[in-house]
Design brief:
Radius of gyration: 30 Å
Helix content: 25-40%
Shape: flat
Structural class: alpha+beta
Number of strands: 5
Largest sheet: 3 strands, antiparallel
Strand content: 15-25%
Order of helices and strands: HHEHEEHEE
Length: about 180
C-alpha cells in the first residue's frame, strides 16, 4: 500500500514537471471541435480624431444670470469652434453651378442625467437662404451630419433631472 501511494506521488510530480498541456498552448482542440488558427485582428483604419467636448455647465438650469450667460457663452464658443462648413456640401467638379447651402439648422438634443447626449441629435428645421429643393440632397445631408457630429459629442455636468431637451441653432456660412 505504501509503495502504491509513493508511486502516485511520483507520478503526480512527473505530471507537474512535464511541459504544459497542448490545450494551454492552443495546439489542441477537444474532440468534435474544430481547431481554428488564432489570427490577429487588423488595426482599425485611422480616421478623423474623435471630437471630445469639455464638460459644459447646464446653463439652462442656472438661476444666476451671470453664471447662465457664462455657461451659454462657453457652450456656443465650443460649438462654433468645432462646427465647420463640410467639404461635401461644396459644389463638385461634376456640378460646379450647384448652390452652397447657407443658413441655420435647428437641432434637438436630449441630455441624459449623466451629462451625455442621447444619440443622434435630430435636425428639426432647416432655415436656409433658398428653398431646400434648390440644393443638392448630398449637400443638405452633409450639413446635417456635421451638426450631429458636433452636438453628439457634447458632455454636460451631471444632474438630478431625468432628461433635458434643448433646441440648438447652428449657422452654416461658407467662407
Amino acid at each position: 500500500m505504501k509503495n502504491w501511494i509513493i508511486g502516485l506521488m511520483l507520478a503526480g510530480s512527473g505530471l507537474l514537471a512535464a511541459r504544459p498541456a497542448r490545450a494551454q498552448t492552443g495546439e489542441y482542440a477537444a474532440p468534435g471541435f474544430p481547431m481554428l488558427p488564432q489570427r490577429r485582428q487588423p488595426l482599425p483604419a485611422p480616421g478623423p480624431p474623435k471630437l471630445v467636448s469639455p464638460v459644459l455647465p447646464r446653463f439652462w438650469h442656472e438661476p444666476d444670470p451671470e453664471r447662465q450667460s457664462a455657461g451659454r457663452n462657453k457652450f456656443f464658443d465650443f460649438v462654433s469652434a468645432q462646427a465647420k462648413f463640410p467639404e461635401a456640401a461644396r459644389p463638385t467638379a461634376a456640378q460646379p453651378n450647384a448652390l452652397l447651402p447657407t443658413g441655420r439648422l435647428l437641432v434637438s438634443i436630449q441630455v441624459r442625467p449623466d451629462g451625455s447626449v442621447r444619440q443622434p441629435p435630430r435636425v428639426t428645421k432647416r432655415e436656409l437662404a433658398q428653398p431646400e429643393t434648390a440644393y443638392l440632397p448630398a449637400a443638405l445631408h452633409a450639413l446635417d451630419a456635421e451638426a450631429q457630429r458636433v452636438l453628439g459629442a457634447l458632455r454636460f455636468v451631471r444632474s438630478k433631472a431625468a432628461q433635458d431637451s434643448l433646441l440648438v441653432p447652428i449657422r452654416f456660412i461658407a467662407e
